[in-house]
Amino acid sequence: MKAFVRTLFWSVPGVLLSAIAWTALKNASLTPSAVTSRLVVYSIVLLFGGLALIGALCAFQAMRWLLLACWPGRVEIIASENQLILRLGSFGVRTYDVERIESRYPFEIPEELNDAGFEDQLPVDQQLAVLLPRLTHPESPTPLNPQILRFGSGSESEVAAALRPAIERWRPADREGAGGETNKD
Question: Can you give the residue ranges of every domain in the chain?
């Protein structure tokens, strides 16, 4: 269901931008005439050509989400002892070794680096119960937890509950509860 909603989300601007660009560009004539300025026509082509490109990129994303919605295989997140595997259908398969995954809850991230918003104000036990920690890996340019939430089914607390046993095994024992004493007051 999420994939169909995202298909609609990406297809609407793709269709609108492409239609606007097509309407503007279909009458643009690059042949010189007494009533048109070539500079104006080139400007119109450049402007609406950019809109057409953005529309095509949105349509491409819509097609990827539509492919995911109709994907014949399993789309799944597998958390094992030594690997995190993201099988994301039309978005590919990504495998991460657990030894290099760093997981931190908002209370463990220094304040100047924390972009969690209001989540870092929650009590430590509630963060551990309902939030998915920030998962980073050197081979991934972005954190893994937004990807997991984007492709996982359910709310963040449901996904966190499903992955909690694996995440607890991955986390170093000396980090459990680290920082909790400073945020309790």
Answer: 2-69, 76-183
